[in-house]
Every structure is written in C-alpha cells, then in structure tokens.
Amino acid sequence: LSCAATGVPSPHIEWLKNNNEFSLMYKTIYKRNHKNQKHGDRLLTVSSLHIPKMKDLGADLPGNWSCRASNGYHPDASYSIDVKVTVRKSWWIWVANGVFICAAIMTGLYIRQIYKKKKVMRKLEEILNELINNILRGDTERISKAKSLLKTLRGAAGNGPHAHAASDGTDEDFIGREVIPAIPFPPAMLLEPTNLSG
C-alpha cells in the first residue's frame, strides 16, 4: 500500500488501522519507506506499507487502513484515505510443504522400485547364463540350484506389493526385502497460491 501527498511545508504521512496508530514495531517498517520524490516542480512525500513484511511481524491485516497526510500548516490541512484490506485465510504454504514431502516420498519409492527391478533382471540374466553353461557341462546339482533361484527371482520381478526378492547370499540387498509399488502422485493436490486482495 502506498500513499503520496504534497504541500508546503512537506507533509508528514502516518498510517492507522481502524483509527488506531501502529505499535513501534510496525512503525519502523513504513518509516523506512517514507521518501520524498520529485514530481515536476512539486516535491511528493510517499509512504508505503509492505503487507507481506507486516504479516511476517504478526500484524492483524484485515480491517480499514488509513493514510493520513498533514503538514500542520492549518488545522484543516489533514486528509485521510481509507483502504480496506482483506486477507483470505489460506493453508497453501502448509499444504505446499506437505505436497512436496509426499512427492519426494513417492518419487523415492518409484526410483527404488525401478532400481530393484533392474538388479533382479541383472541377476536373472546372470543365473540364466550360468544355467546354460551348467547344462552344457552336465552339472545336475548346479542346474537344480539355478532353477530354484530362477523361480524365486521371477516372483521378485513381479508387480505385487509383497513380492520378495532373494538371492544365493551374494547380494544381501535382495534378502527379505520388498519391492514397493509406485503410488501415482495426483496433480489435483497442487494448489494455487492465494493472493492478497485490496
């Protein structure tokens, strides 16, 4: 919010909310933004209120904010402009943080699932190659072991939420772990930011 006034001598501008003066803490904000600017042959006094900063300080924003300009030259040389400020209550920031966390979790699960499936497929390829070599060598004991591992890994490569992966002990990451299915992230949860209206 900005208020500009001109006069001789230069007027002083003050802000009130619901006809009450601000506390000292809030005054420091608009006093920093109390400037004199040249406008043609006139000198304008401009005062601004930064609503987000006021909000950060915990100011009660909804209500009638008054800009009062006076140079003390005459008792009637004081003019006020009332500005109605309304703030819609919004939990957008809280929801946005929640959505971000959810998105991060879902993304992490999805990446983990792909990573695990790739490892399972690599393991399947290794065992198949070993199985072919054992068949060629006629090693029945190793063929039986390879078939057992293939059966286990086929279940782990599935899409079920409780598909367990196992190995022959050479890959500890697979033992007793679950392949967690990815949960789609609904775009409807993304909310638009709420702007102040005034």
UniProtKB/TrEMBL annotation:
Q: Does the keyword Magnesium apply?
A: no
**Membrane among keywords:** yes
* Swiss-Prot/TrEMBL keywords: Membrane, Transmembrane, Transmembrane helix
Query: Can you give the residue ranges of the Ig-like domain?
Result: 1-86
InterPro entries to which the protein is assigned, alphabetical: Ig-like_dom
Domain of life from the UniProt record? Eukaryota
Transmembrane intervals: 91-111
Its lineage opens with: Eukaryota, Metazoa, Ecdysozoa, Arthropoda, Hexapoda
Q: Which organism is it from?
A: Allacma fusca
Record protein name field: Ig-like domain-containing protein
